[in-house]
Specification:
Length: 266
């Protein structure tokens, strides 16, 4: 079902023209889901069903109705399914070396329900947050200008952003190597008791914390730079610790923020 409306804003509003629409999509027999967004959020929740169900809100806006009309022609949501792989990608001139920001604005917000074991690959860029609740499959989650939060999840993979924090609460500890990374924000990750992992942590402006019992683990130093005949090592070297008996490598890296490796039952 699709519904759309065009609103002419009052002079005090930010844009002179705006169009909103909502689209519902359903996919069966999905094993992998890829959502490649640009502006807007992605919210994923595990369900007991066998299908992927989506509600996608789209907003196009500009300084005139003609600009919104141009956005309708240039901005689209490409959807493909190949066997158990479903991919949705917001498309426009920016994918082909062109720009759009000086002419109109667009936003897609995804609310998604998925089978618990679906493998996820989610990407967002602007005015965005990415949340995942209750899934058990592996994942590759990336954002740029916004946070990432995962609650009661399992699986392994990577969780990265640039301007925002990362917060994860595990229902089951990762069994494979997993990366947690940002530039401006803290990494706050809670694991189940009995965690066995080799942990690497790094921050430049912040602290490193854990309430697990740890033993020191050597970490290879970053190679030095040669500056005017002198070897110079960078600040903020990686710190390595072993939790429990050791296991998969869990890497935490931020520039401006704390790293917190928590036992969720303490």
């Amino acid at each position: 079902m699709k519904r759309a409306a065009i609103f002419v804003a009052a002079a005090a509003c930010l844009f002179a023209a705006e169009e909103k629409s909502t689209e519902h999509k359903t996919f069966a027999d999905v094993r992998e889901l890829v959502i490649d967004n640009v502006t807007g959020f992605i919210e994923v929740t595990a369900s007991s069903g066998n299908a992927v169900e989506m509600e996608i809100d789209k907003t196009l806006s500009g300084d005139s109705a003609d600009r919104v009309s141009l956005a309708k022609k240039e901005i689209s949501l490409n959807t493909t399914q190949e066997g158990g792989l479903v991919r949705l990608s917001v498309d426009g001139p920016f994918r082909h070396g062109g720009g759009w920001h000086e002419v109109y604005r667009f936003e897609y917000n995804f609310k998604v329900r998925v089978p618990r074991d679906v493998k996820l690959e989610l990407r967002a860029v602007n005015h965005s947050h990415v949340t995942v609740d209750g899934t058990a499959g592996d994942y590759k989650i990336s954002n740029v200008n916004g946070p990432v939060e995962m609650r009661d999840v399992s699986g392994s993979g990577s969780i990265t952003t640039v301007n925002g924090g990362v917060k994860v609460l595990y229902a089951k500890n990762p069994t494979g190597a997993t990366l947690f990374k940002t530039v401006n924000g803290s990494l706050d990750v809670s694991f189940r008791p009995g965690l066995n992992a080799d942990v690497k942590m790094k921050t430049l402006n912040g602290g490193l914390y854990t309430d697990f019992d740890v033993t020191a683990m050597p970490v290879a130093a970053d190679p030095p730079e040669n500056r005017n005949g002198k070897l110079v090592w960078r600040r903020g070297r990686m710190t390595g610790v072993r939790i429990g008996n050791g296991g998969p490598e869990l890497q935490f890296e931020t520039l401006n923020g704390d790293v917190m490796v928590r036992n969720r039952e303490k």
